[in-house]
Each structure stands twice: as structure tokens, then as C-alpha cells.
Amino acid sequence: MSTSTNTNKLAHFLADDQLTKVQLLALIDLAIKIKKSPQQYNQILAGKSVAMIFEKPSLRTHVSFDMGINKLGGHALYLGQQNGKLGERERVSDYAKNLSCFADLIVARVFSHDAIQDLAEHASVPVVNALCDLFHPCQALADFVTLTEQFGDLSTVKLAYVGDGNNVSNSLMIMAATLGVDFTLVTPQGHEATAAMISKAEQLALKSGSKFTCTTDINVIGNQDVIYTDTWVSMGDEDASKKAAILAKFSPYQVNHELMEKADASIVMHCQPAHLEEEITTALFDSAMSVVFQQAENRMWAQNAVLVSLFS
Length: 312
Hints:
Layout: H1 21-36, E1 49-54, H2 60-71, E2 75-79, H3 92-102, E3 105-109, H4 113-122, E4 127-131, H5 137-151, E5 158-162, H6 167-179, E6 182-186, H7 195-208, E7 212-215, E8 226-229, H8 240-250, H9 257-263, E9 267-270, H10 282-285, H11 292-311
Parallel strand pairs: 1-2, 1-3, 3-4, 5-6, 5-8, 6-7, 8-9
EC number: 2.1.3.3
Pfam family, one: OTCace_N
Family: Belongs to the aspartate/ornithine carbamoyltransferase superfamily.
């Protein structure tokens, strides 16, 4: 995410490690303000058009952006999988330059972070990362909006992620470390975050004064306020033999009432879609401890905060 001469002004919204604590807190605050008084922001995108590139299927991302843009007075155009993977039919640079002729902003949900970076490099309009292989910054921002609504002061929150080290856990741990939130990453052996991503989180946590813990032992999860999980089987890995092996390896990492009680956690989070009775039990997902639909709604408000900031 490059910035203008004003270091708090967003030029793009690409990756969690390119956002400062001041920027994140401002976005969280703005998201909550827009949620409380959407009518005050309903003309921010008047006359503006947003091109939405989707290489991967989506429910929450597509709907939350489309309807959120509409609530801001703008127009959204969906560009789905029929256009193929970025860079195959035509160069990403050409795609970015063409869209910049028509659109005022580009939202992209893609396979590769390289595609996001290429779009931002060659587009003459702002680019928003709606998911890639390395990061899911819109999801993490919505999650910290949700945690702010639940707890108020984020610096008091202890957050643990249990499951596969993926784009969601990357964004969560980077954003937590930036914001000064104590974060514990619990993954099965062989499914950890990359060494580079862990190093990045450690450096950010050192700067913010928060605690970052990385372990493969579910038994040392410690006391937590919140436990977060995500699907164990990534999109495209639904092959039966692969899935059986993953489920067997991950079964000790299921988030259930027993784990919540062990960690003394009061809130469970999931970015959805959930594979019930795999990474999380149905009983816990549907319980009063679950804030999964608050998270889903806050996707729209968090993304609208990003859009308002990019157009301000």
C-alpha cells in the first residue's frame, strides 16, 4: 500500500504489513461510524464506478462489496471467472491500464499476491486486495472492527488462531502485531506460517509491545479471550484422499466447547464458509459465543471505510 505525502492517506489497500497502527485505528473508527450513520456517507461514491475482479468464487466478499458500494452511492461491475486468470488472456499491466480508463477503483480477489501488486503498479486508480494467496486484509480489518465492538480497547484482547496457516491467519497476526494485540498462532506441524511471515509478525509485535506466540502444540494455547479458526481444506484441495489425510492430521485442532473452556475464551470467530464438525463444531458455531455473522456484516462496513478513505 503506497501512500501520498500525508502518511495516513491511503493510496491502495493491498497488504496488512503496509498499514500503520494509526491507519488501522482510523479505519476501524471510520467503519464503526459508517455502520452507525450510513446515511451520512451515502453520496461519497456518487458518480464513481468500481471494477470488481473475481478469479475465485465468493459469497461474502462479492455481496459485501457490491452492496457496500451501492450504499455509498457508487456503481459496481462484477468481472468473474469467465475472464480467466489474470495474466493469461492478456498481461496484468494491460488489464490494469484498460480498467483504469473506465473505473475509479479496482477491487481484486485473486490467486496470487503478485497479481495484486502488478495491478497496483500499472493502474492509475486505487486497488483493493479482496483476497490473495498471502493476505486477506479486508477480512482482518472487519475482524478487528468486530473485536473493537466486543471489547472496546484492543490492547486488552488476547486472540488465538487455531488451524491451517493461511492468508487469513497471516493477515490476523500481522494486523494484531501492528495494533498491539497479543496473538497466538496454533497450527499443526507442517502447516505453519512461513518463516518470513512469522519474522514480520515478531518484528511488528516488538515495535507495538504486544506478545506474539507461535506453536504446533494445541495443549499450550494458554488463556485467551478469543479463538479464531478457518477451514482446514482450502478451495481446490477437496480431493477425497487429500481431504481424509488433512482431517486426520487436523482433528486435534478442532475448535469446540472443550477448547473454549480450556482457554477460558468467551468468543469464537470464523471467516466462513465453515465446514461444520471439521474445524469447528456446529454447537459452538451456532452458540452465543459465536460472532461469525457480526464479522460477516462488518466486512461491508470495514470495506466501506477503506473505500471512503481512498476517495477522501
